[in-house]
């Protein structure tokens, strides 16, 4: 009886992912972001079993071009969600305020910590790990390995473990 119940649950779970309207969920996300003044223009959208991938995306905030991203991948298992951006290049005008290139940025969310996002990044600045707290409305990023951070050094603070960036929103 338990085996049949588990098998039925597994079949329903798999069917949910296969038939989930991934593109519609993405377009809903775009509408929410548009209310905040954020627009993502993508060259192509590819659906896969557990998510979807955007190719050659350009990110605008309030009409100003912020960055181009080679690929943005969204994947979910309902209890765990991951967004990975690869090949992110910041627009020329913003290079003095933020790192100019990120090879990979990974943002994860788990139902174990529903009000916190984990962030991992690697790029021209080195490596960074951080968290975004939704309840406290704070972002904290520790730079674990630093290289070429002179452009962003005025925004960073020195801590016991090295350089970090912290802000409230």
Mind explaining what this structure looks like?
The chain is an alpha+beta fold and 169 residues long. The chain has 2 domains: 21-67, no CATH class; 77-169, no CATH class. It has 2 helices and 11 strands. Strands 1, 2, 3, 4, 5, 6, 7, 8, 9, 10 and 11 form an 11-stranded antiparallel beta sheet that branches. Strand 4 (64-76) and strand 5 (80-90) form a beta hairpin. The longest helix has 18 residues, at 2-19.
Topology readout:
Blueprint: H1 2-19, H2 22-35, E1 38-41, E2 44-47, E3 51-61, E4 64-76, E5 80-90, E6 101-110, E7 113-123, E8 126-133, E9 138-146, E10 157-159, E11 162-168
Antiparallel strand pairs: 1-3, 2-3, 3-4, 4-5, 5-6, 6-7, 7-8, 8-9, 9-11, 10-11
Derived from helix and strand composition plus strand pairing, the structural class reads alpha+beta
- Domain count: the total is 2
Report the average pLDDT across residues.
91
What's the quaternary structure here?
A: single chain
Estimate the global geometry from the Cα principal axes.
Answer: globular
């Amino acid at each position: 009886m338990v085996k049949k119940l588990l098998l039925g649950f597994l079949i329903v779970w798999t069917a949910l992912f296969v038939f989930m309207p991934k593109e519609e969920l993405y377009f809903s996300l775009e509408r929410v972001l548009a209310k905040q003044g954020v627009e993502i223009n993508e060259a192509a959208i590819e659906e896969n079993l557990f998510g979807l991938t955007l190719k050659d995306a350009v990110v605008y905030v309030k009409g100003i071009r912020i960055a181009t991203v080679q690929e943005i991948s969204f994947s979910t298992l309902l209890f765990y969600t991951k967004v990975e951006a690869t090949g992110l290049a910041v627009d020329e005008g913003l290079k003095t305020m933020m790192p100019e290139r990120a090879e990979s940025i990974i943002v994860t969310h788990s139902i174990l910590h529903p009000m916190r996002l984990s962030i991992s990044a690697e790029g021209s600045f080195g490596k960074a790990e951080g968290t975004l707290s939704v309840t406290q409305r704070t972002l904290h990023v520790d730079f674990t390995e630093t290289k070429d951070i002179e452009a962003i050094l005025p925004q960073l603070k020195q801590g016991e473990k090295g350089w970090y960036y912290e802000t409230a929103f």
